[in-house]
């Protein structure tokens, strides 16, 4: 029987981020199951450094812990999958530095950590757009994926970003779409589709890029373009965008 309502510590509260991180690790171990750990492989997440805790349970723990920048750093340094996933919900975006983003990004070793940190933490920092620009042409697989996971997250969470920022994102996407690595091209595709669903103007721009990619020689680019076109030109997406109120130059 799960103990999702159990407190992190039944004793007195830890007095340092390191002790609190260790208490959180103990909580995670109590809520881990072999079935969850074994199931991670089906989604391409390596389980050799994981405990086997569901995302639902991790979010319960994150809510108990609250926002704490120092605790997030201590959790990251533990190194296990679940402890690092927790940082996405525990760290304070305003306190995250560019140096921290670069260091953590170099530590990414699976798509789950990469996407969760980018979508729930990094895209809320003041440095998100700068990191998209810096990471998108890097050679390291998960650093490059992070650029496009971050761009995807910004389409949802940066309500004030102008369309011009996402138009530049489309240029970055078109340049990166020839990367044949599965985890990179999937992220490039997700970012293209996400930009094209932000508003009608960006949909038209994204469809134009997708058509060029779909007609281009490289196999990865063709896949990115054709897959994006199916969604971006679908009646469902077009209908939702038409129903939105017009957006000005500053976005939603």
Question: Could you explain the architecture of this structure?
Answer:
The protein is mostly helical and 252 residues long. It folds into two domains: 1-91, no CATH class; 98-247, Serine Threonine Protein Phosphatase 5, Tetratricopeptide repeat (Alpha Horseshoe), CATH 1.25.40. Helix content is 65%, strand content 0%. The relative contact order is 0.08. The model is unreliable at 1-6 and 247-252 (pLDDT under 50).
Features:
252 residues, mainly alpha, 14 helices, 65% helix, disordered C terminus
Topology of helices and strands:
Blueprint: H1 17-30, H2 34-39, H3 55-65, H4 69-78, H5 81-90, H6 98-107, H7 111-120, H8 128-135, H9 141-157, H10 163-176, H11 182-196, H12 200-214, H13 219-232, H14 235-243
Helix pairs in contact: 1-4, 3-5, 4-5, 5-7, 7-9, 8-9, 9-11, 10-11, 10-12, 11-12, 11-13, 12-13
> Whole-number average pLDDT?
92
What percent strand?
under 5%
Tally of domains: 2
Percent of residues in helices comes to 55-70%
**Structural class determined from secondary elements:** mainly alpha
Give a count of the beta strands, DSSP E runs of length 2 or more: 0
Encode the helix/strand succession as letters: HHHHHHHHHHHHHH
Instruction: Supply the CATH architecture of the largest domain.
Output: Alpha Horseshoe
Uncertain regions spanning at least 5 consecutive residues = 1-6, 247-252
What is the alpha-carbon Rg in Å?
Answer: 20 Å
The global form is: globular
**Which fold does the CATH topology of the largest domain refer to?**
Serine Threonine Protein Phosphatase 5, Tetratricopeptide repeat
Cα(first) to Cα(last) distance is 44 Å
Largest sheet: none
